[in-house]
Amino acid sequence: MSLPKTMKAVVNYGPKDFRFEEVECPQPGKKELVVKVEATGICGSDVHCYHGAPMYWGGENPWVKAPVTPGHEFVCRVVALGEGAEEHFGVSLGDRVIAEQIIPCNKCRFCKSGKYWMCQKHDIFGFQKNDSEGSWAEYMRYNENAVVHKVPENLSVADACFIEPLACALHVVQRAQVDFADIVVVAGAGPLGLAIIQGIKLTTPKELIVIDMDDKRLELAKKLGATKTINGSKENAVKIVKDLTEGYGCDIYIEATGHPSGVTQGLEMIRRLGRFIQFSVLGQDVTTDFSEIGDRKELDLLGSHLGPYCYPTAINLLERGLITAEDIITHQFKLSEFDKALAVAQGGDSIKVLLIP
Fold it and tell me: Which of 48, 178, 304, 326 is the most exposed place for a label (fewest CB within 10 A)?
């Protein structure tokens, strides 16, 4: 198909300054794809970015390079191929595709050693103008370094758009190294927490406990694999977990709340020699006694970032019905309604919100 000269897109000009505009439609260069966006998600990081979080906007040279179109959760259709792109990516016109959220530079020490998700340049779709324009648009461009995967036609739009969050969740599961006898706590039953729960369930731990402050989300967590749920706003979560474990505490704690209290709660709740996985993006600093990690408990403290090497598995698990986005995708909006969608994404009635260009 011939591409239009212009398209509709959301453009991020700065904190709390996102605009719906007519912009130039991308054209494919050598070994590049232009894709039509089928659907795109609103991530918690998009909300943090909108509100001006320092990790995005701080310092003299902010990581976000505006003006830029946001969006790194998406499913698309190939509509234009640059010279050599078909061979380079192994795709054809009309293929349904996704690109991983990071665009590796392929030059730094991390990329060269296969650890591309820690790329020093660290361009992620939706955050750097020109280099990594995102998916809150009718069309987007995958450049030569994009990591592209085909998406099965039989996946629903909801499941297909959930591939990126699920890949991130599966990386958490890998980092957790769950054993059959483990008592695992997942703190936070948001979209990513609910994906992590489904992944942990497949590892069959002895107990999978989920903590949140929303009863509806806890009901869904139970449906998706939690063996026990705790409402942290009504119950003493630390006491309950300690009582369930003869006073020792949980074996593995996964922090997916996005709030500092989720960190301090976990450090108190986890047993000695336990494994603590920090996953969520925290909007505030955490103040805690680090002696709890070292001298008192000798914990394994692990981070988890993006979904490296997990996309094929995420697609496979969704296609087999072992993991689902059903009930997690709660709202869909037109692209022109992005401001309303952002407001709903921050509200208590939604879990995951999609934009449909």
Answer: 326
Question: How confident is the model at residue 1, as a pLDDT?
Answer: 64
Q: Give the dihedral of Cα atoms 33, 34, 38, 41; nearest 10 deg.
A: 80
3-state helix, strand, coil in the chain (%, to 5): 30, 30, 45
Angle at 336 between CA 166 and CA 81, to 5 degrees: 60
Token reading at 59: 């310092």
Quote the radius of gyration of the chain (alpha carbons, Å): 20
CA distances from 277 to 9, 37, 56, 186, 312 (A): 36, 33, 22, 10, 23
- pTM for this model (two decimals): 0.96
Nearest to 100, CA basis, from 64, 145, 45, 55: 145
Sequence-distant (6+) residues with CB within 8 A of 343 are: none
130-157, pLDDT tens digit by residue? 999 999 999 999 999 999 999 999 999 9
Q: Which residue has tokens 């909006």?
A: 333
CA distances from 198 to 70, 162, 253, 317, 325 (A): 28, 13, 15, 10, 10
Q: Among 103, 192, 86, which residue's Cα sits nearest to residue 140?
A: 103
Phi then psi dihedrals of residue 286, to 5 deg: -110, 130
Q: Does the pLDDT value for residue 297 go beyond 90?
A: yes
For the chain, domains (ranges, CATH) are 6-162+325-356 (3.90.180.10), 169-303 (3.40.50.720)
Query: Cβ distance 352 to 330 under 8 Å?
Result: yes
How far is residue 12 from each of residues 74, 109, 131, 165, 340, measured CA to CA in Å? 17, 31, 14, 22, 16
Q: How confident is the model at residue 347 (pLDDT cuts 50, 70, 90)?
A: confident
Picking from 267, 289, 287, 268, the residue whose alpha carbon sits closest to that of residue 277 is: 267
Least Cα distance to 343 among 10, 37, 11, 42 occurs for 42
